[in-house]
From TrEMBL:
It comes from the Bacteria. This is DUF4276 family protein.
Amino acid sequence: MKIVLFVEGHTEKALPELLKRWLDPRLPQPIGIKIARFEGWRRRCAPRSRASARIRRP
C-alpha cells in the first residue's frame, strides 16, 4: 500500500515518519508514504486586506 500526502511548505516533513510509525504496527504489511509538496493554497485562502484588494482591482 502507498499513501501520497499533499502538504504545503517544509514544516510538514515530519508527518510521513509519524504516520508510518503509527500505521505499520496496525497493518499486515508496511506502507510507503510519499510527500507531494505544493505552494499557493495559503495565498488563495487568506483573507485580503482592503489595501491589497484596491491595488489588485482593475
